[in-house]
Automatic annotation (TrEMBL):
Positions in coiled-coil regions: none
Any matching Pfam family: Glyco_hydro_92
Source species of the chain: Olivibacter jilunii
Oligomer and partners: Monomer.
Alphabetized UniProt keyword annotations: Calcium, Hydrolase, Signal
GO molecular function: hydrolase activity
UniProt keyword annotation of Hydrolase present: yes
Protein name per Swiss-Prot or TrEMBL: GH92 family glycosyl hydrolase
Length: 763
């Protein structure tokens, strides 16, 4: 008997350490945790996410609100009180929100201020999924449930028996309006609260319909609550609706929708709910998410790996969000966040291309191309309405980050085969943005005149992060070069952008073997500290940005003295201590701290500039090192827990890195046809393309130890290359990985096995 108990104990320990293997997944949404990344704060990000209750790419998200009104950290896992349930459009806490308002049930006293109405809650009494949210509010003895559609939502609130049940509608500060219509059990209003990037006439109009008569009404303006008043406009207004409930568990249902166009349009958006019950909408939401997530099937991993995978995949399907609506005739229309007009056609927003050009948009191009086709149409409209392509839109042009990476987003889509939109207008937009400084430093190209004359943005002309801008502009010129070739543009134009693609060489310092800021006179800036964050670089240092030559790694190898020297330099990233110089910022920014505590040397996976670097060993004929570090990063830097990221999640980018990497390949150079091979995480995976074709990826002997590719077959034939082509994959492909515990140093080491580099073009 003791032996049986001992064996059972050993089994439990082994199961806990290794995790039960999930062979197949039938309802992927069941593996999604929307709380991953929510244990974050200003000084340390483990995702900086919130539990978005939404449909894929939905116009409106909902979230429980633990932070105060206007706090970008609207929901943090370590909070213990909820102040309301907020309609949100926030892409990140650093960008903050716009068009927000909140709903909150209250019992007892008529409390409407956010601190007074706040209630204790526990994660033990919280259910957080993409399509359904429920939480018990202890101070009010109320359970609140939410199910969303793209532009609307249903609330179901279960109250105790009481004469003092209330629902607070808070239209927030910075300008709002509320009107109660008791004979229709309806409330309308609007919020103008925003964080910038909106026209003067911006409003988020909302409409709410309750399923029962009101027993009393009060409206607040500022801190003053007045009964009998039905309408108010002011800096901060809202309403308090009184109900009497006759039994415990009595439910009050609310339908709510909003619009950036008008109250009439918000009422049209309510049709997404129609007469559907709460449970019907809940099941529809679950079905929609399962359908979207099922485009990628994985199996043969631990339950934590599957949870991590689908929680990351969920995050890749949120941004950029829809910013369009359907009018009374069913036509697609949008309020323009650029000129304030209501216009026909698609519009999307809330994404920063500096983050998402790297692999979020390439992921959409492979797996959800029909969605990115609409997004490209939206970019056409954005250019027509603002005169520029947005580099960071939320909802209009925002002045943050560097680069002109709309070039990559546009070029990669067309090169990957997306069609059906006005590519000529987008090409015109790319040329315009590539040769002019915009109305904001983050629009067009800051320092464009210097760059076009010298081939770089100088360090000493008061343009911050100049080396980062130069490196990104050179890559963006490559994206334009690629698109120009595809569109058969004049040879002179093609050659110009090809030449400009090599501008990265102007910043390479042979003395240190790193990228370095350069003054207008052609001399490198002094003093130079490669560990200095910011200054010439963006949210990183020279060790991070030196690798930002996505399109010409062979050219970088040549500058560094050959493949062996290059590989040694890559090794140094992991072996150097995580030292830093924060003098540019005057404080330790959260990105620095996240690198420091990760115990991976100078490798800062929590921020975007270096995320592709692990894959560069493939260009130096040492692909096994990519395989080792890709798996190491997936294993150590991602978890299905509230602290599950190693830095900002950033609109799907850091999630898409994991999803791509878990499948076994990654788009190092968007605007090319290639994906660089890493190391698959699962024993089985399948990508279901919208054409009906499938990409099947099998690694039956995959395990924690077997992280190296011993042999690879593509469509049944031995395959030694360190990349797949998009063209091959979208035809449908069967990829078989034979994994081993030791590196195979004879595979992928030929000159013909290395991925694309501009310097190798024609060779």
């Amino acid at each position: 008997m003791k032996r049986i108990i001992l064996l059972f104990s050993m089994y439990l320990v082994t199961s806990t350490l290794c995790g039960q293997e999930v062979k197949t997944v039938s309802n992927p949404v069941d593996y999604v945790s929307t709380l991953v990344g929510t244990l974050s704060k200003h000084s340390l990000s483990t995702g900086n996410t919130y539990p978005a209750i939404a449909r894929p790419w939905g116009m409106n998200f909902w979230s429980p609100q633990t932070g105060k009104m206007g706090d970008g950290w609207m929901y943090t896992y370590d909070a213990d009180k909820i102040r309301g349930f907020k309609q949100t459009h926030q892409p990140s806490p650093w960008m903050n929100d716009y068009g927000q308002f909140a709903i909150m049930p209250v019992t007892g006293a008529a409390r409407f201020k956010e601190d007074d109405r706040a209630s204790w809650f526990s994660h033990k009494a919280e259910v957080a999924t993409p399509y359904y949210y429920s939480v018990y509010l202890a101070d009010h003895d109320v359970t609140t449930e939410i199910v969303p559609t793209e532009r609307a939502a249903r609330f179901r609130m279960s109250f105790p028996k009481t004469d003092s049940a209330y629902v607070v509608i808070d239209a927030f500060d910075k300008g709002s309006y509320i009107k109660v219509i008791p004979n229709e059990n309806k409330i309308i209003g609007y919020s103008t609260k925003n964080s910038g990037g909106v026209p003067e006439n911006f409003k988020n109009y909302f409409v709410m319909e309750f399923d029962r008569d009101f027993d009393g009404v009060a409206v607040f303006n500022g801190e003053t609550l007045r009964s009998g008043i039905l309408e108010s406009t002011g800096e901060h207004v809202g309403a308090l609706i009184h109900f009497k409930t006759s039994k415990a568990g009595e439910q009050i249902n609310i339908k709510v929708a909003s619009s950036f166009i008008s109250h009439e349009q918000a009422t049209l958006n309510l049709k997404e709910i129609g007469n559907k019950s709460f449970e019907t909408l809940k099941q529809e939401g679950k079905d929609v998410w399962n359908e979207a997530l099922s485009r990628v099937e994985v199996g043969g991993g631990s339950i934590d790996q599957v949870r991590t995978f689908y929680s990351n995949l969920y995050r890749t399907l949120l941004f950029p969000r829809m910013f369009f609506e359907y009018d009374a005739n069913g036509k697609v229309v949008h309020y323009s966040p650029y000129n304030g007009k209501v216009l026909p056609g698609y519009m999307f927003t809330d994404t920063g291309f500096w983050d998402t050009f790297r692999c979020l948009f390439p992921f959409l191009n492979l797996v959800y191309p029909e969605m990115n086709t609409k997004m490209q149409e939206g970019l056409v409209n954005a250019y027509k309405e603002s005169g520029w392509l947005p580099e960071w839109a939320s909802p209009g042009l925002r002045n943050v980050m560097v680069g002109n990476n709309s070039a990559s987003v546009v070029a990669d889509a067309y090169i990957k085969g997306l069609r059906g939109y006005d590519i000529e207008t987008l090409y015109e937009a790319l040329l315009h943005g590539a040769n002019h400084a915009g109305p904001l430093t983050a629009v067009g190209r800051a320092g464009a005149d210097f760059y076009n004359k010298l081939g770089y943005v100088p360090y000493d002309v008061n343009i911050n992060e100049n080396a980062a801008r130069t490196l990104e502009y050179a890559y963006d010129d490559f994206a334009i070069y690629q698109l120009a070739k595809k569109l058969n543009k004049p040879k002179k134009e093609i050659e110009l952008y090809k030449k400009r693609s090599l501008n990265y060489k102007k910043l390479f310092d042979p003395e240190t073997g790193l990228m370095r800021g350069k003054n207008q006179d052609g001399n490198f800036q002094k003093p130079f500290n490669p560990f200095k964050w910011g200054d010439a670089f963006t949210e990183g240092n020279s060790w991070h940005y030196t690798w930002s030559v996505f399109h010409d790694i062979q050219g970088l190898i040549d500058l560094m003295g050959g493949k062996e020297a290059f590989a040694n330099k890559l090794d140094s990233v992991f072996t150097l201590p995580p030292i830093y110089d924060d003098s540019y910022y005057g404080q330790v920014i959260h990105e620095i701290r996240e690198m420091q505590i990760a115990n991976m040397g100078q490798y800062a996976h929590g921020n975007q500039p270096i995320q592709h670097m692990i894959y560069l060993y493939n260009y130096a004929n040492e692909p096994w090192k990519t395989q080792y570090w890709v798996r190491e990063t997936m294993n150590r830097m991602y978890l299905p827990t509230p602290d599950g990221y190693c830095g900002d999640e950033d609109n799907g980018q850091t999630s898409a890195w994991y999803v791509f990497s878990a499948l076994g390949f990654y788009p190092v150079a968007p605007a090319t046809d290639q994906y660089v091979i890493g190391a698959p995480l699962f024993k089985h995976a399948k990508i279901k393309l919208p054409t009906g074709k499938e990409i099947s990826l099998d690694a039956p002997n995959n395990s924690l130890d077997n992280r190296f590719i011993a042999k690879l077959l593509l469509n049944g034939k031995a395959y030694t290359k360190n990349f797949f082509s998009h063209e091959e994959l979208v035809k449908g492909a069967t990829i078989q990985f034979e994994m081993g515990s030791q590196p195979n140093k004879t595979r992928g080491v030929g000159n013909e096995d290395v991925p694309y580099s501009l310097s190798r073009e024609g060779k």
